[in-house]
């Protein structure tokens, strides 16, 4: 008869069964938090205050978590791993400041966005300041790391430009959307996993596998968000259903539905789903149509395919608590769609 399951320790929202791994990752995240605050300090207090604005608002710290878990596949949490984990979080935070300006957002992580609290110029300059300090940190890790983070910057910008311009005439809308997600979301998460393995002394093959796993799980996380926005009953996910529909965002289930020939398509087009902002009555109708569409099924199938691809990458990595924690992170990403 088997004994009781080991107690799970929550680390950044991830349940980790192995106590030694949980302690190592938790300690690593504490070191990242400390370095984040030290790194953004400026002799000009206002710059420090604006930089700390989103740091202190919290967040999942998903990217540093992935870096630290990847490091545990090999040599563990060295000082270089902490620097790498901090640098990817600084890049992520910088993009949030810029995104809020582009989206004219007024809230971020339950607090006023920087552009709402101060103005667009302050938000843009704060993002630039964080990018600068991420680059400064990465310079301590050597020329390969500098090249990798520069390539990641380029992908982030390309993804934003691709999204801003929209699909070209004749371009497949689904392929365009997935390219945007891979660049805007997947690229930095890929670098997070890559850096963790790289600076913990993993083999080149393991580093490449973690890079691919990171890109896949980053894309999967966005696709799962898309599904939740349509499929989740009100309040179950902590997010109001139809948020993207209200904002006129064409997410993956919407694109799949509009590409089909189901009976709901003419009305979805008439409502302008994915092309304009919708009011509450329109959102309610669109949700009902989309929940019965093939678009939702196809989005779930796309998510499942990415989960299988991610598991294939994990299978090439050393077995142990870190790999099992990475598998749990993937399972959480998939399971949250219900």
From TrEMBL:
Keywords: Magnesium, Metal-binding, Transferase. Belongs to the FPP/GGPP synthase family. Its cofactor is Mg(2+). The keyword Cell inner membrane does not apply. PROSITE patterns: POLYPRENYL_SYNTHASE_2. InterPro entries: Isoprenoid_synthase_dom_sf, Polyprenyl_synt, Polyprenyl_synt_CS. The keyword Magnesium applies. This is Polyprenyl synthetase family protein. CDD domains: Trans_IPPS_HT. PANTHER family: ALL TRANS-POLYPRENYL-DIPHOSPHATE SYNTHASE PDSS1, GERANYLGERANYL PYROPHOSPHATE SYNTHASE. It comes from Actinomycetospora flava.
């Amino acid at each position: 008869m088997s004994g009781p399951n080991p107690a799970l320790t929550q680390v950044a929202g991830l349940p980790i069964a192995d106590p030694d791994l949980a302690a190592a990752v938790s300690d690593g995240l504490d070191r990242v938090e400390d370095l984040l605050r030290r790194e953004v300090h400026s002799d000009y207090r206002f710059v420090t205050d604006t930089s700390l604005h989103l740091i202190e608002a919290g967040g999942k710290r998903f990217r540093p978590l992935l870096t630290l878990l990847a490091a545990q596949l090999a040599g563990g949490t060295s000082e270089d791993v902490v620097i790498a984990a901090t640098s990817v979080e600084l890049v992520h935070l910088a993009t949030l400041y810029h995104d809020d300006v582009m989206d004219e957002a007024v809230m971020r992580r339950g607090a006023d966005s920087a552009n709402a609290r101060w103005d667009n110029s302050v938000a843009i300059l704060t993002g630039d300041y964080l990018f600068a300090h991420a680059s400064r940190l990465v310079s301590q890790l050597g020329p390969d790391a500098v090249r990798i983070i520069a390539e990641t910057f380029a992908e982030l910008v390309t993804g934003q430009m691709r999204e801003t311009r929209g699909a070209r005439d004749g371009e497949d809308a689904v392929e365009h959307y997935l390219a945007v997600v891979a660049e805007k979301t997947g690229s930095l998460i890929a670098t997070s996993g890559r850096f963790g393995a790289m600076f913990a002394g993993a083999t080149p093959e393991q580093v490449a596998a973690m890079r691919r796993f990171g890109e896949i799980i980053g894309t999967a996380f966005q696709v799962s968000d898309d599904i939740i926005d349509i499929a989740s009953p009100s309040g179950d996910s902590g997010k109001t259903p139809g948020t993207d529909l209200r904002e006129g965002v064409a997410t993956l289930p919407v694109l799949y539905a509009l590409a089909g020939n189901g009976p709901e398509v003419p009305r979805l087009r008439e409502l302008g789903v994915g092309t304009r902002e919708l009011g509450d009555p329109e959102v309610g109708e669109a949700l009902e149509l989309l929940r019965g569409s093939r678009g939702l099924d196809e989005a779930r199938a796309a998510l499942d395919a990415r989960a299988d691809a991610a598991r294939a990458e994990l299978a090439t990595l050393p077995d142990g608590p870190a790999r099992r924690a990475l598998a749990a992170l993937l399972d959480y990403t998939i399971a949250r769609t219900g």
